[in-house]
Write a structure and sequence with these properties.
The chain contains seven helices and twelve strands. The protein is an alpha/beta fold and about 260 residues long. It has a single domain (about 35-250), classed as Rossmann fold (3-Layer(aba) Sandwich). A hairpin with a 2-residue loop joins β7 (about 160) and β8.
Length: about 260
């Protein structure tokens, strides 16, 4: 009996182990086709749908074409996905989607909470370009027009009271610093995309600076996400997100208001 069991165990030991199952590669979600078209001055969404983390449709932007002079405001409740298209236009929407976006390469994107590197105010306003591209006079003018004239004398400083600027500026001042960057780069920007750019501004500053942005970008397209209904009349395309779908109300581009002040 002992010999019989020994033979069985030896046969089992000699039997080759089954090969491991093939490694399952993670399934990549389908992605939006983003095309940068040289020489174009339009933004085109074609059958644009963006997905959530579960791979289900989050928001359907459908199809729309924006031309120079168009100002589109995207509005809707928090969490509905209205900022998702802005991410997709930067090729940074990682959850997948379908459809196409066509944009010119000359885009400037300003998020709600912009990252301010540990550099001088001069360098922050010039970013992402090197500081050598602009003169001190150009940067000083941009700061002044954005309501930061009191910082012109400190624009070559890296810190304030020993702290980097990102730790000392208020929310409203950060908004204004982002707007100064918009002014400085306006001539080379065909599409400006802003996400709650006036969220931390007081009503007076918002009423002064947002029309000034539109005036500077009158040659291009402005797309913004905003909650403040007071901004709606300054846009000719209202994109309303509700129940997972975006509807568009489009009128001819308005005559842009002259901003108050110098």
């Amino acid at each position: 009996m002992k010999n019989f069991l020994s033979k069985i165990f030896r046969k089992r030991a000699q039997k080759p182990s089954p090969p491991p199952p093939p490694k399952q590669e993670p399934v990549q979600p389908p992605s939006v086709a983003l095309r940068h078209e040289e020489g174009s001055d339009k933004v085109v969404f074609k059958d644009l749908v963006l997905y959530d983390a579960a791979g289900a449709p989050l928001i359907d932007f459908g199809s729309v074409t924006l031309a120079p002079g168009d100002r589109m405001m995207i509005c809707g409740p928090a969490g509905c996905g209205k900022s998702a298209a802005l991410s997709a236009m930067r090729n940074s929407w990682m959850l997948g989607g379908s459809g196409e976006i066509t944009v010119p390469p000359e885009i400037r994107f300003v998020p709600q909470e912009e990252y301010f590197p540990d550099r001088t105010l001069f360098g922050i306003v010039c970013a992402p370009d090197p500081v050598a591209r602009f003169t001190p006079e150009q940067v000083a003018q941009a700061l002044t027009e954005a309501g930061l004239a009191e910082f012109v004398g400190a624009m070559d400083d890296t810190t304030k009271r020993g702290e980097y600027w990102k730790n000392t500026l208020s929310g409203g001042q950060k908004n204004k610093l982002s707007i100064a960057g918009i002014f400085l780069h306006a001539a080379d920007t065909k599409v400006l995309i802003v996400d709650e750019i006036t969220a931390a501004l007081d009503a007076k500053s918002e009423a002064e600076l947002y029309p000034r942005i539109l005036e500077r970008l009158r040659h291009g397209i402005v797309i913004c996400v905003a909650h403040h209904a007071v901004l709606a009349p300054q846009h000719n395309v209202i994109a309303t997100a509700a129940d997972g779908k975006v509807s568009y109300t489009k009128t001819p581009p308005p005559a842009l208001p002259k901003p108050p002040g110098p």
